[in-house]
Amino acid sequence: AASLGPLPGPVHINVPLREPLLPVMPPAPLPATAGRIKHCPSRPTPTPETVTAIEAIVSSGNGAIVCGTDDLGPGFHRAVIDLAEHLRVPILADILSGVRGAGAGGSVPLAHPDQVVRTAPAPDWLLRFAGSPVSRATADWLGRCKGRPQVVVADHPRLADPGGGATHVVRADAAALCRMLVGRPAALGWLESFQELDRRADQAAAALCADDGAFEGTLLRRLIRSLPPETALFLGNSLTVRAAEWFSGRSPARLRLFGNRGVSGIDGNLSTAFGIAAGLGAAVAVVGDLALLHDLNALALGTTHRLVVVVLDNGGGGIFDHLPQSGLPEYQEGWLTPQPLSPAGAAQAFGLDYAKADGVGAAVDTVLAALGRPGSALVHLTIDRAASLARCRQFQSIHLHGESGS
Ligand SMILES: Cc1ncc(C[n+]2csc(CCOP(=O)(O)OP(=O)(O)O)c2C)c(N)n1
User: Fold this and answer.
1) Domain range holding 366?
2) Domain boundary among 200, 218, 233
3) Which end of the chain is more exposed for a tag (fewer CB within 10 A), N or C?
């Protein structure tokens, strides 16, 4: 129960043990509890005064709504999209928020917020929900918006606002607040200017992901567009969740997206995904090769649970190619750390089906086929790291204000 609230996340458990190296004494009894504790979440409905105060802010010019990595559910997705459509402001939603895949949202939730914020103007106000986003570019943009009114709707601002930009913090039911708010719409053309940048970003992403070449971005863009509605998809930490953020755009079907942001890095990713599969019946997990190695023992659950694991094997920690560490002399052994793991051997050792895909199309087809079968499977996609980095750089260097729109 403590991991669910009021401050959700990892829990430090103190277990009192007897003093060591002393004559044997009876252990101190653990404090008794009344049994299993059920967590009963409840969020306050905002007061009329709070609603009026926020309405004054969202009526004060051209704003934007930002959603972080928490998926607050379909009720919130609908309510926040309705609010943004009413206020004529864009939603910059993290891929894990689920808002981009909410279906009926049209183009108000941007498909590529990480790309758009690189050129978008700073808004007059911000309304923020669902924690903080993964995207560094969006975090930088939020930093540039410091000093302007930023309303953070969160149970715990410590988790939701690491950059410290909040000017107002509201602890409220996010969906209820969205439904209660009315306000003056932004100037004509404000939302459309973001949508135009976004359209150009999506054209560029589609062009970069058009061929079958093994690339994290292409795999995630196609997978997110191919999985049946309501499929549970776990996005591993490191480059996987970022490639999904950058390249996947909006998914046509509503998927149930999961990540392990801020919890144990790349460790435990597969265990988390197996937990999701146990709870929901089946799941797909996409992880890097080091994340697979870190949590290899989790594959032992493969014979009793239904998880399709896609390993994006780019020969070590591909994320570090994107960071200044890549210039260090000890880069290879200190950061990239490629490992001689054989995913085929690992799959065999744990009794999982194994398939090596020779391209993105084959990988996606194999995932879809494996989802229809009992048991678990490992789908292995080998990626050329240098080519992957080049595609990411190409995407991030496009000029969205350019004439060509690509
Ligand atoms: C348990 C743990 N150890 C180390 C790290 C530091 N770390 C961050 S990203 C990363 C590389 C991950 O490599 P991989 O899973 O192959 O994903 P890729 O970067 O290639 O997408 C490492 C080692 C971490 N996040 N968690």
Assistant:
1) 209-394
2) 200
3) N
Amino acid in position 277: A
Cβ of 318 closer than 6 Å to ligand 1, yes or no, is yes
d(CA 210, CA 223): 13
Q: Whose CA is nearest to atom 25 of ligand 1?
A: 265
How many A from CA of 327 to the centre of ligand 1?
18
169 and 104 in a single domain? The answer is yes
Coil, strand or helix at 125: strand
Please check whether residue 88 is in contact with residue 19, taking contact to mean a CB–CB distance below 8 angstroms: no
Structural tokens at position 25: 């004494």
- Which of 235, 241, 264, 319 has most ligand 1 atoms within 8 Å of CB, for mutation? 319
Closest ligand 1 atom, residue 316 Cα: 16
Q: Say how many Å lie between the CA of residue 385 and the centre of ligand 1.
A: 15
- From first to last of its 406 residues, the chain has per-residue pLDDT tens of 777 776 777 788 877 676 667 766 666 666 677 777 777 777 788 899 999 999 999 999 999 999 999 999 999 999 999 999 999 999 999 999 999 986 656 889 999 999 999 999 999 999 999 998 989 999 999 999 999 999 999 876 667 788 888 999 998 899 999 999 999 999 999 999 999 999 999 999 999 999 999 999 999 999 999 999 999 999 999 999 999 999 999 988 889 999 998 777 899 999 999 999 999 999 999 999 999 999 999 999 999 999 999 999 999 999 999 999 999 999 999 999 999 999 999 999 999 999 999 999 999 999 999 999 999 999 999 999 999 999 999 999 987 765 433 3
Instruction: Please report whether residue 15 resides in a domain.
Output: no
